[in-house]
Known about the structure:
Elements: E1 5-7, H1 13-30, E2 35-36, H2 38-41, E3 66-71, H3 76-82, E4 94-99, E5 102-107, H4 110-125, E6 134-137, E7 143-147, E8 167-168, E9 171-172, H5 176-188, E10 193-195, H6 214-226, E11 230-235, H7 239-242, H8 254-270, E12 276-279, H9 296-308, E13 313-317, H10 337-342, E14 353-358, E15 381-387, H11 403-411, H12 423-427, E16 437-442, H13 458-469, H14 475-487, H15 491-511, E17 549-550, H16 568-575, H17 585-588, E18 591-592, H18 603-626, H19 634-666
Parallel strand pairs: 1-2, 1-3, 3-5, 7-10, 7-16, 10-11, 11-12, 12-13, 13-14, 14-15, 15-16
Antiparallel strand pairs: 4-5, 4-6, 8-9, 17-18
The chain binds alpha-D-glucopyranuronic acid.
Amino acid sequence: PTYAWIASSxxxxxxxxxxxxxxxxxxxxxxxxxxxxALATDPDGETGKRSVxxxxxxxxxxxxxxxxxxxxxxxxxxxxxxGVEAAELGREGFAIRxxxxxxxxxxxxxxxxxxxxxxxxRLLATGADPSGHEVFERPANKLRMINQWDNxxxxxxxxxxxxxxxxxxxxxxxxxxxxxxxxxxxASVGLxxxxxxxxxxxxLESRFVTEDYLPRLAELAAIFRVYGIKLLLSxxxxxxxxxxxxxxxxxxxxxxxxxxxxxxxxxxxxxxxxCGFLVKAxxxxxxxxxxxxxxxxxxxxxxxxxxxxxxxxVVWRCFVYNCKQDWRDRKTDRARAAYDHFxxxxxxxxxxxVLQIKNGPMDFQAREPVSPLLxxxxxxxxxxxxxxxxxxxxxxxxxxxxxxxxxxxLDFETHALxxxxxxxxxxxxxxxxxxxxxxxxxSNIGADPNWTGHPLAQANLYGYGxxxxxxxxxxxAIAEEWALQTFGANRRVADAVVxxxxxxxxxxxxxxxxxxxxxxxxxxxxxxxxxxGYEYDKWGTYHFADRDGVGVxxxxxxxxxxxxxxxxxxxxxxESLADCPDELLLFFHHVPYGHRLxxxxxxxxxxxxxxxxxxxxxxELAQRWASLEGLVAADVYxxxxxxxxxxxxxxxxxxxxxxxxxxxxxxxxxEQGRTIY
Length: 677
Ligand code: GCU
């Protein structure tokens, strides 16, 4: 057998998890489950004084090859194998080396060993040569966080994969085995923190910080802890009033501060390694410091002081904007809001505050520019927030692989400090020398047996974790890893799946809102086309289409001034009609339908062409999937096929509604005379 045994001298739940992950994974891949040494499985470590399996006490003597996994502190042999090279691995890194039949996975911490175990499985599943492993890995980002938007009634805000796995009927109610599976799944890609409830914190969830709920939350924390994942809670800024019965939630009020200090102490009593609070304040009607004439820094710092003495963090969201806009007001611009609110506060936050900034200035559209706030603040910790759940990108009924979009964001050059400062180096803290930073993302899982509704939507969760660990990986490499690990070593399946994933964001963008203008969805639930859905809504996310043209003037010269929030040449590029990239044209400029794009086509002809083309390619996705019948498990095949068929139908609806709308507005016919209703 490839691996006959697994051994470790660690006596630790996390290393034990690593061992069972390896045993199961290797058993599934090679058909033979390795023998696990007694010491490695025995919780007390009293039986089995020998540290490894048959004939393998020092690895080299054994006829069979095996795996030695664990921490350097507990495994002398691992110290010998890696020597001084181990110094570079940091707290969460790992090394893998195959030498004389022994594959050694070494780390400074149990969780490092766990990450190494998953990595070995990934290498094996993607066809690496088992005899030649030589890997040194450490995560690029310190915080690699997932945000659940789950509510205690069991619903999930923007959830498209069934109800919550954490809550049911106004109670914390979970199957430990399912939570453990989720923890394992998150750890398999190196995620290390989870905010366990919706950022919109409702009545009962506001009480999560009390003894009513802390015992159950501590049980959840204990499951996640084994997999190296720390818990955060989303908190209600008005909790001192709503839960504590105080007359105010003013962050400068002493009784309010005292209340949060007591809550923090109670939380750490129950969950000693609690990660911190996630806060959505003064945003979309949520309470916040503005009510008391205070700013975001005063609000965040007050909570940071309460948590700080226990080592906790405050993750404060920057999704703050005026959500009630009058269409006549052409200066208020939601895109400007995060920067306008937070840029003046640079340097005003405590060291244990991290600002969580959405990747774009609007709200997770299929296409929008990168938030100009990312990188602008030099003296403030920041994490970039992505949305894995596909709120505006097909709601896990359409295929939309989001990793290419995230890569575009991460590689975007902010021109901070005038040097090389892509978003990924802002997020990891290196550009501005911040010690805290990383990624956050809204989860896309629910209680559906396949986790994500659309089976291929799993690739987004997988890809998010991989990028949070290593943003240098390519979207294609990640897709391939995922396909091979999910569907097995069949090259034909992997190639087909990778091709479909990689083309999917362009297909989706083609049949939905054109040229970066965004929205054009049904209000509230955000599924399906509705060009004027938000145009005549007080929420005010406009495209300003009329008979002459379309797009939002965000220039400094004649528009909202948003383009001026970028640094250096980025500001000039977006300001200039000539230099603005086609795909973002309507985000930055209002142009006539006859305006010629860099592609040579007019805006109106581009709209027609992309919509006919996108709908056609969406139809082809169903056929491409159908060619895999018999090569993927029948239930997965059926679930995905049903969704591809729905996507094909809905893409036609998008095509027809968008085309008809702009044909009737502009009066310009399609050059190719295709059917426009
Ligand atoms: C979007 C989304 C909301 C969510 C909000 C947020 O607006 O539609 O459901 O609460 O983002 O990120 O806070």
